[in-house]
Design goal:
With about 290 residues, this protein is mostly beta strands. The protein has helices at about 1-10, 15-30, 270-275, 280-285, and strands at about 35, 40-45, 50-55, 60-65, 70-80, 90-95, 100-105, 115, 120-130, 135-145, 150, 160-165, 170-175, 180-185, 210-215, 225-230, 235-240, 245-250, 260-265. The strands form 4 sheets. The protein has a 5-stranded mixed β-sheet, with no helix packed on it. A 5-stranded mixed β-sheet has the order 2-4-9-6-7, with no helix packed on it. A 5-stranded mixed β-sheet has the order 11-13-18-15-16.
Length: about 290
């Protein structure tokens, strides 16, 4: 009877499977959502639903969510059970621009937002839970970002292209490892002369559009030191070995041009680090 009904209504087998598959995909997306508990100090690189429940008073906890360089994150607060008046709180650190930009989310009298979206590929929750049994649940999703800016690399090696489309902004790519950095292209849209890295004292900042390389031991770029600058477009490999714990490639744009910077990087192994210990860049990094 069912087969005859399908036949009479001219529904093909392919169309039927298409409808069934679309329903199945919607159902599977909900039921297959990755779930796991959060630790007091945690790093997560997957989409999913994450729950923190305090087994005892915990202060100074942080959950660090990270996506691919060309993605942003949305965080939905599914459930929050904390005692704001008793000293519990949750803060978000959405943006990475060298220093963390914080906003208190759940505190006495504060409005509780349903969802927050980051503007780059990192999102950190900082929380104090003073009472056992209290906690929260969040769902984290990853979304494509057409013009990534202010990125932290997930891996110690890779390649990336920063593009700033006529916007007055500074975009940074942070690599939290000692690396060998290769810049293959730097285009300002107004100059095609060959250039090589210059010391920052040469005054590239006066040009308004330039690349700045920073090195240091932490994520706060205000406490990092300039290693070199580029302020003239070029095509061709420029290579540097940087022994700092954190290397930042920053593209500074005036908004007058479409700026483009292509580069790759790979982790410096122990032997390579030993070879550059007398290099001024390496000493420079470790002396700060």
């Amino acid at each position: 009877g069912d087969c005859r009904y399908i036949e009479d209504n001219e529904v093909t087998q392919e169309e039927l499977f298409s409808v069934l598959n679309s329903d199945l995909k919607r159902e599977t997306a909900e039921t297959s959502l990755y779930r796991r508990p959060l630790r007091c100090l945690d790093m997560v690189a997957l989409e999913g639903q994450f729950t923190y429940t305090a087994e005892r008073p915990r202060l100074g906890c942080a959950a660090f969510f990270i996506a691919a360089p060309d993605q942003v994150l949305s965080v939905t607060y599914d459930h929050v059970d904390i005692d704001c008046r008793g000293g519990d709180f949750i803060k978000r650190y959405v943006d990475y621009c060298g220093t963390a930009v914080g906003a208190e989310l759940f505190s006495p009298g504060a409005e509780q937002p349903a969802a927050v979206r980051s503007s780059q590929n990192v999102f950190m929750l900082f929380f104090h839970i003073r009472h056992a049994g209290n906690g929260f649940t969040v769902t984290v999703r990853q979304h494509l970002n057409p013009f990534p800016c202010n990125i932290i690399s997930q891996t110690p090696e890779g390649a990336f292209t920063l593009v700033v489309p006529q916007q007055h902004r500074n975009c940074s790519f942070s690599i939290i490892y000692p690396v060998e950095l290769r810049i293959s292209e730097f285009s300002l849209g107004h100059n095609s002369d060959t250039a090589f890295p210059k010391r920052s004292a040469s005054g590239c900042s006066e040009a308004g559009d330039f690349v700045e390389l920073l090195g240091g031991s932490g994520l706060d770029t205000s406490k990092m030191s300039p290693i070199a600058e580029l302020c003239t477009s070029f095509t061709g490999p420029t290579q540097m070995k940087i022994g700092c714990d954190n290397t930042v490639v920053r593209l500074v744009s005036s908004g007058r041009f479409v700026n483009r910077l292509a580069f790759s990087y790979n982790l410096l192994d122990h032997s390579a680090l030993q070879k550059i210990r007398l290099n001024s860049v390496d000493d420079f990094c470790f002396s700060k």
